[in-house]
Design goal:
Length: about 140
């Protein structure tokens, strides 16, 4: 096994909490939840909201992006290794669909960011691009 054994969200927060010598009660108080909820997160019995992921990252000194992907592994699956198509078929359809842009109120700046993301790796679907858009909006609103 490699040096990174803890690849689950619950294991990551439990390990870091222990490294910082914090109790579940202390973490719960700092993020505004209950002790049982923290225990449920650590044992993968509950799924955290994006708000809780951000709060946990701050309290535990973890990278919010890494913690988000641990909590939402399917989000990482939206992006594949870069292909020769320079963003893929989904991105090409997405950027040409003016109706979709108007329906979601996508700004030119947001289109630029999504285009850069599409260049990093092929996004599999238009739904994947919309998920990225909402994630970007959420992160920028904090």
């Amino acid at each position: 096994m490699g040096p990174k054994k803890e690849r689950s969200f619950g294991a990551a927060i439990r390990t870091q909490r222990r490294r910082l010598d914090l109790t579940q009660e202390e973490v719960a108080k700092q993020i505004g939840t209950s002790v049982p909820y923290v225990g449920h997160l650590e044992s993968a019995k509950r799924h955290p909201s994006d708000r809780i992921v951000i709060k946990l990252a701050a309290v535990l000194g973890l990278d919010p992006r890494d913690l988000y992907f641990l909590a939402n592994p399917e989000a990482r699956d939206l992006i594949e290794p870069k292909t020769k198509s320079g963003g893929g078929v989904a991105w090409e359809r997405f950027k040409r669909d003016e109706r979709l842009g108007k329906m979601h109120g996508i700004t030119p700046a947001e289109m630029e960011v999504l285009g850069r993301v599409a260049q990093i790796g092929e996004v599999k679907s238009i739904d994947g691009l919309l998920h990225l858009l909402h994630t970007i909006r959420y992160v920028l609103s904090r």
